[in-house]
Amino acid sequence: MELDELGLLPDEAAVYWMLIAQPSARAEAICDAAGLPVEWAAAALGSLVTRGLVARAADGHRYAAAPPAVALGAELAAHRERLQRAEVTVARLAETYRMATADRAQRELVEIVEGGEAIGTRYRQMQLSARRTIDIFSAGRPQAVTPADSEEVTALARDYGWA
Predict the structure, then answer these.
(1) Is residue 89 domain-shared with residue 122, that is, in the same domain?
(2) Residue 64's beta-bridge partner residues?
């Protein structure tokens, strides 16, 4: 996971990485090592200090990174919590959808999708949400879905731990 997924901007991530590799440094050295203009590095340092990822030394000139497991642990926990809330929301939406269409039992068995764009979109959604396989029978030349529409590589890259 990159640091941007935990809410750090690229400049903040560069400064934090630099301070992790060199646990204590003056602001000027941080600018040089991170390859940032003084103003950008100062802004990144200020933000990192505010977030508790970096501490300013008592002399006011040196900065040190907080231990990643401690400093980023809270960010990771918050990220996991947001994902769990999103999963619950998706499950509630799916249940609401299922209940709203319960009187149409055939819809549960067969979904009719019309139009090339809609078919392509639904096909990609199915690939990305499949847990094991998608079996498709196709005759003739593909018109709505072509090999270029495949999300197979993305889907196969997920590891569910199944043997």
Answers:
(1) no
(2) 24, 55
Rounded to two decimals, the pTM is 0.53
- Total number of domains in the chain: 3
pLDDT of res. 1? 43
Question: How many whole angstroms separate alpha carbon 33 and alpha carbon 151?
Answer: 40
Read off the tokens for 59.
């002399």
Can you give the residue range of the structural domain that contains 124? 111-163
Indicate the Cα dihedral angle 125, 131, 136, 142, nearest 10°: 30
Q: pLDDT confidence of 163, banded at 50, 70, 90?
A: very low
Same domain, 77 and 67: no
- Give the residue from 66, 10, 6 showing the smallest Cα distance to 34: 10
Residues 88 and 142 in one domain: no
Number of H helices, E strands in the chain: 8, 3
Which amino acid, 39? E
Q: Are strands 54-56 and 24-26 parallel, antiparallel or unpaired?
A: unpaired
Any bridge partners for residue 56, and if so which? 63
Backbone angles phi, psi at 122, to 5 degrees: -65, -40
Instruction: Give dist(CA 3, CA 33) in Å, integer.
Output: 18
